[in-house]
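Justification of resources, computational component.

The compute hours requested in this renewal are based largely on the per-chain cost of generating structure records like the one below. Each record pairs the submitted sequence with a full structure-token output. That output is archived, and it is also reused by downstream analysis tasks.
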Amino acid sequence: MQGSMMFDSPEQLAAMRAAFARRDAAQDGRFVVGVTSTGIYCRPSCPARRPRPEHCRFLPGPAEAEDAGFRPCKRCRPHEAAREEVALARALEILHADAGRVPLAALARRVGYSSAHFQRVFKRRVGLSPAAYARALHAGRAQDRLATSATVTDAIYEAGFSGPSRFYANMEGRLGMAPSAWIKGGAGVTIRWAVAATSLGPMLVAATDKGVCRISFDEGEEDLRAIFPQARLLAGDDDFAALLASVVAAVEQPDTGHDIPLDVRGTAFQERVWQALRRIPAGETRSYAQIAAAAGNPRAVRAAGSANGANHVAVLIPCHRVVRSDGALGGYAYGEGIKRELLRREKAWQD
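The structure output for this chain reads:
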């Protein structure tokens, strides 16, 4: 097992080493890592402790690894990764083609798995169960229709719901604002807001009665009105002051503020990206490719970047924890300095 590497390009090796170091699930199925000190081989995303670099061999897949004398890791089961990749891609195609209206048993059967097994595979790779993904897909279509349809009723039927009751049951807890507000830039919604001083500079915080809808740096009322042109904007009152203090504390103290309610909008894919961002532990980062994979579409790296940039709630939805695949910081809506400082604080807190 001490032969030459299966990949010879220094750039390719460096990229695979980096992917393995960051446990990049988006690379599962593209290569495996043989560990000469243990004789096993793993997926790039294997949760086990990382071996010393000199003990790693990078191979195209399970067949090559087993030909070289390695046996599959019992923890990450790398010999199943390629099959899972194909099954997952096919399942996503089926769900999108049928607007999410496919029962788990039928979906699993069509991709060659038992229901229970595919439920576990899908949730591990996507971050949602097939049923939750289907609901998010269906709701995302409704949200898209709300932005373009003349009335809410039109949007409900165009999105494929059988009637308003089904629509509101599916949307409960997701849209936050009343559905009609999506069409008219916050029409009928009252938003309270204030600008607070923080160690990162002035920070705007705005909230509806359902939760925080905007957190940004170096913005004011004019910027907020551009986002919600039809909303009723009011200066924060005493009740809002308590929420404002909680948001400021979450900015100043890493890994706090998890219980602060949010009222955010987005397409189904954007909301899956934001959910993936909130699962990143403070002190850690992920690549755009990892976020795309966690959102259920490993190939949608560019779309994941766009969804990351569309986040209205800085820090509480931690888009600052996403970096480029080469480790560079990448962009940030409020400047590289704020992003760097947020990451520095979180790393110091973790250490």
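Confidence is low (pLDDT under 50) at residues 1-5, 171-175. The longest helix spans residues 130-148.
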